[in-house]
Amino acid sequence: MTYNLLQGKKGIIFGALDEHSIAWKTAERIYEEGGRFVLTNAPIAMRMGRIKELAEKTQSEIIPADATQVEDLNQLVTQSVEILGGKLDFVLHSIGMSVNVRKGNHYTQQNYDFTQKGWDVSAVSFHKVMQSLYQNDAMNQWGSIVALTYMAAQRVFPDYNDMADNKAYLESVARSFGYFFGRDKKVRVNTISQSPTPTTAGQGVKGFDGFIAYADKMSPLGNATALDCANYIVTLFSDLTKKVSLQNLYHDGGFSNMGISEAIMQKFMEE
Ligand SMILES: NC(=O)c1ccc[n+]([C@@H]2O[C@H](COP(=O)([O-])OP(=O)(O)OC[C@H]3O[C@@H](n4cnc5c(N)ncnc54)[C@H](O)[C@@H]3O)[C@@H](O)[C@H]2O)c1
What we know:
There is one protein chain. The chain is of the alpha/beta class. The chain has helices spanning 22-32, 43-48, 51-57, 70-84, 99-103, 112-135, 163-185, 200-203, 208-218, 226-237, 262-270, and strands spanning 10-14, 36-40, 61-62, 88-93, 139-149, 188-194, 247-251. The protein has a seven-stranded parallel beta sheet with strand order 3-2-1-4-5-6-7, sandwiched between helices. α4 (70-84) runs parallel beside α6 (112-135). The chain is globular, with a radius of gyration of 18 Å. Bound molecules: nicotinamide-adenine-dinucleotide. Nicotinamide-adenine-dinucleotide (NAD) binds at residues 14-15, 17, 21-23, 41-42, 45, 66-68, 94-97, 121, 148-150, 194, 196-197, 199-202.
């Protein structure tokens, strides 16, 4: 079902790697809802991923940009405004990576060069993206900026490792920059705290299968899928959510407010 919610809206989508990516599903849904956009990802992901397929399907141009590099971002932002024929209405930051997780370093045995790299990619990049949009005056009034996060920012999920700290920082940047973007440009900024989702980044977390099954059994509505997340993002980019800002919005089937579910209790009764 489509609702034409984004007719005439223009934006940038970061982070579509393959068809499992949350950003990929979001690009497809935005396109169906009438939105047009530039796709971007790190130059290395261009070689690994299948972003060209998505670009063809959604009639989009691709501009490579490393989200940690301010120059890349400035170029991306100014070129996108040119290509799309005007200022932007929406930006999706769907980027995350921890080198410590990739290398299997335990939280108590971090390599701090890796910690810093992961923090830059996963958290500071959101500040850099917004600073570039702000300084280039690239957003239309009542535009919307969204980044993706996870509840390990609030609660302990041991295997989420240093990504938990990165997400806490990311959520704080959304509030702090969201204030200035709202005050000066009438643009809203929010984070969506999404259920565990089987993507390349998600499956990099140790014990992901147990993790996702547990969350599903704990949530009264079950886990939110990547497509569910894409639909939620469409609403946040639409004119129906103009006054939602500085929020961390849980999109997790109810998981974040649960204590225990009968399905989980049952598992323990069996033992
Ligand atoms: N999958 C989950 O369980 C889950 C749950 C909650 C939140 N999230 C968040 O959702 C977002 C999207 O992740 P996903 O699950 O779709 O996985 P994904 O692996 O498909 O997407 C991550 C993207 O980050 C990009 N990226 C990495 N380094 C970059 C850089 N330097 N510059 C630009 N882009 C870079 C990758 O190329 C990739 O496209 C991330 O912020 C992730 O933390 C994921």
